[in-house]
Design a protein that fits this description.
The protein is 28% helix and 19% strand. The protein is α+β, with helices and mostly antiparallel strands. It has one domain (27-221). The longest helix is centred in the C-terminal third of the chain and has 17 residues, at 210-226. It is globular.
Length: 228
């Protein structure tokens, strides 16, 4: 399998960033400033500035669903990119627990304090708007092929977040971009133990060649079901 396709970025600074790949190492940045909370959903993501001067929407490992939800979302995002859907660049964000010390909101302070280490960041798209299916321009933005690919992906990764009432999409530079949601299918990759009867050995999360293992997962979980 080749390298995952990257998105096309209109500004030079973003174009220099390398997208994460299923066959490579996820790029890591260091959080330097907590900018503002984004009070959407229950995980309380935040807008964070990093040492590459980029802004990222960060989902924190200290949130209720824990770090395995972040791993699942990264996998789902890169699978979406592989089938040609527009997904903002995904990076690992190293967070110092002291980053939230100056936050007056106790909930945010506690969340950042509990999120020391690697967290999941999604490149911030300045000026992006939430897709409104009732808008007059909605029909021209979403073509049948795109809609079919999104429905197929959500079924594959078991994403319950996207509905007709809440399509969970962004519109940026005249095209739709995916927002990541829950990806229940991949939580088993980092589960400490199996909670259901398995037809085969439970994946421990440990392997000699992570890149080859991810390529194998792509081939067995995605390519074989997509067909020609």
């Amino acid at each position: 399998m080749g390298r995952v396709r990257t998105c096309t970025w209109p500004d030079a600074r973003a174009a220099e960033r390398h997208s994460a790949t299923l066959s490579g190492v996820m790029r890591t940045v260091i959080a330097t400033r907590y900018v503002t909370p984004l009070r959407e959903g229950g995980s309380l993501p935040g807008l964070v500035e990093a040492d590459d001067d980029g802004l990222y929407v960060v989902k924190f490992r200290g949130a209720g669903q824990g770090p395995r939800a972040l791993v699942a979302e990264w996998l789902a995002g890169e699978l979406a990119r592989e089938i040609g859907l527009a997904v903002p660049d995904l990076v690992a964000v190293e967070v110092d627990p002291a980053l939230g010390d100056a936050e007056p909101d106790e909930e945010i302070h506690d969340l950042v304090d509990a999120s020391g280490g690697l967290n999941l960041g999604m490149d911030f798209l300045p000026g992006a708007l939430s897709f409104n299916p009732a808008a007059a321009t909605a029909e021209g933005l979403i073509d049948p092929t795109f809609a079919a690919d999104v429905v197929w992906l959500d079924a594959l990764v078991t994403n319950p977040d996207r509905t007709a009432q809440n399509p969970n999409l962004l519109v940026w530079h005249g095209r739709p971009w995916l927002r990541l949601g829950l990806a229940e299918r991949f939580h088993w990759l980092v589960a400490p133990s199996s909670t259901i009867i398995q037809p085969s050995d439970v994946h421990t999360g440990l392997c000699d060649d992570p890149a080859a293992e991810l390529d194998h997962l792509m081939a067995t979980l995605v390519d074989r079901w997509r067909g020609p």
